[in-house]
Design a protein that fits this description.
It is a lipid-anchor. By secondary structure, the protein is of the alpha/beta class. The protein folds into 2 domains: 128 residues, Response regulator (Rossmann fold, 3-Layer(aba) Sandwich), CATH 3.40.50.2300; 141 residues, 3-Layer(aba) Sandwich (Rossmann fold), CATH 3.40.50.2300. The protein contains 10 helices and 12 strands. Helix 2 links the parallel strand 1 and strand 2.
Length: 334
């Protein structure tokens, strides 16, 4: 009889424990639970560019704060809202979408989960519990324009964009301004390939520019941009990388790359959630905050004229100290 009473008591305890964990996802993390952070990527995490640097940021936060983390790759525009919903329903404390297109879906899902935290990079969306962290990518694009125009012998250069959206347009437009600073008569070809993952489209765009005389290419197209780099490599012209030091993709082709310090961005957001200071809004981070930079010149160090390197360094200092503001142009002028 005592055995049956013991079993009954045990079953009651199990029911109570199960009841505590069932139903809607818990919207807060208790003190003895790890904070859970999810990352949504528009392309593959190993693209050696835009998505790779975001994953580095997630791993840095995991290491520093002891987080439970996960990520989803190749999240298409049509799937962004359901991806946010899925992680929110599973109780993730902070869900990060890496790219402009994640902003509006994050706001819609954030309204349904007011105790969770949502974030998008390069977005202009915001809500009480949804923040956008915008990198001043135009600053890096401007310097790449200076470099590309300075290294061109034909007076013709090219830039490939991914999807024609404000976060991409602003960098292409800054690239053109930087190039015109060096050579007002420079010819700048530009093509939007309407994809961040179509490598073939990126390569075709690059080849078409090279056929018209472009001898330096730049891209703001994530994985699709690696196609443009390969086109430059095959045709023996130069290129500049984006988001990540892409020199390893084509060491004899990549002069330099814009670099985005996503670990700093993600660490900033995670720290705010942990400290209870996270709030909706739009935060801009650039060269002054050491979030935007350019990579070393590697084997091109001795091939770039000293005057060009000095101009780039002086321009960078002006951006940092505020004496030069790179215009943010979010509508294409092509």
């Amino acid at each position: 009889m005592k055995i049956f009473k013991g079993l009954a008591l045990l079953m009651c305890m199990l029911v109570l424990l199960t009841g505590c964990g069932s139903g809607a996802a818990q919207e807060t993390t208790s003190k003895d639970q790890k904070m859970k952070v999810a990352l949504l990527l528009s392309g593959p995490a190993n693209d050696q560019g835009w998505n790779a640097t975001a994953l580095e940021g997630l791993k840095a936060a995991e290491s520093k704060f002891g987080l439970e983390t996960t990520y989803s790759e190749n999240v298409g525009v049509a799937d962004t809202e359901s991806a946010y919903n899925d992680y929110a329903a599973r109780g993730y404390d902070l869900i990060i979408g890496h790219g402009f297109q994640f902003g509006d879906p994050a706001v819609r899902v954030a309204q349904k989960f007011p105790k969770l935290h949502f974030m998008a990079t390069e977005s202009n969306s915001q809500a009480e519990n949804m923040a956008s962290y915008v990198m001043s990518c135009e600053q890096g694009g401007y310097l790449m324009g200076i470099l590309s125009a300075s290294m061109s012998k034909t007076g013709k250069i090219g830039v490939i964009g991914g999807i024609e959206q404000p976060s991409i347009i602003k960098e292409l437009e800054a690239f053109k301004l930087g190039a015109k600073k060096v050579n007002p008569n420079i010819v700048v070809y530009e093509i939007y390939v309407n994809s961040f993952t179509d490598v073939s489209a990126g390569k075709d765009a690059g080849l078409s520019m090279i056929d018209k005389g472009a001898d330096v290419l730049y891209h703001v197209a994530n994985q699709a941009g690696t196609g443009a780099i390969k086109a430059a490599e095959e045709k023996g012209v130069l290129a500049c990388g984006n988001s990540y030091d892409q020199n390893s993709i084509a060491p004899n082709t990549i002069i330099s790359s814009t670099v985005y310090n996503m670990p700093t961005v993600i660490l900033t957001a995670v720290d705010a959630v942990k400290n209870g200071t996270f709030k909706g809004g739009i935060t801009h981070l650039g060269m002054k905050e050491k979030v935007v930079d350019i990579s070393p010149y590697h084997s091109f160090e001795s091939k770039i004229p000293e005057a060009t390197k000095k101009l780039i360094e002086d321009t960078k200092k002006q951006i940092i100290d505020g004496t030069l503001t790179v215009p943010v142009i979010e509508k294409s002028t092509k």
